[in-house]
User: Fold these one by one.
Assistant:
Number 1:
Amino acid sequence: MPSPPSLCAIWFVVRGESPGTQAVDPGQYGVDIPNDVLTWAESHGLDPADPDIYLLVAPANEADPEVTGEMARCWHPLHPETEAQLREAWEEAH
């Protein structure tokens, strides 16, 4: 039986200039995007046809209280593999 998620992440749907210091682009850093997060993001404005709207992620314990251009946010538990990806991305970006 797999281990339960040990970390939560905050996912952001953002419009405008990328606030790179506040969160990371999961695609740029190879962080897996859970299907339910992608569905949530699309219901909050994420559209591949609009390059000014994108998805960002940050570890919940590291996330800024406000992200520039934020349209929506959600908390989501991470599985160990995704947690490791996010930690590595966060350290690389910061």
Number 2:
Amino acid sequence: MSSLRIPGVALLSSAPAPPGVRCWSASLPGEPPYGRIVLSLLLEEPDSTDDVDTAFIAEVVARLPEHLATADAATRRAVATDPARFGLPEAAGAAAGPRLAAPELSFGPGREWAVRFTETDLPACRELGVAVFFDEAGTAQVDELCDAEQSG
């Protein structure tokens, strides 16, 4: 399947993915102050597009400013609580916070999804970004996605 429509959201086009994974993506209008936004749908075999809750994805996108603000706030709290985890000196915990931009929304089957800020000035996250995972209850959990050379 070369494209997949999320009603009321976008037509997603097939995108490159590792073996055993199928991916579709689309660009969404930018949301200040974050800039461009990419929506991705990832399915691992044997999941099918029938397993995707398109109505849920549409609900999330309809409340995108709120969700981005939640992800931003969760990231800022995590950085303030443990700056070293993000490659910052301890004294940086009280600073204004990181620059977070170019969010990518990732969905799969079910109601868990993530926002990955692909552009940030956090030293440990410059290459891969920082992700905030949401569960069905809306709980946000931050993952610093450390660069390989930082984590090894």
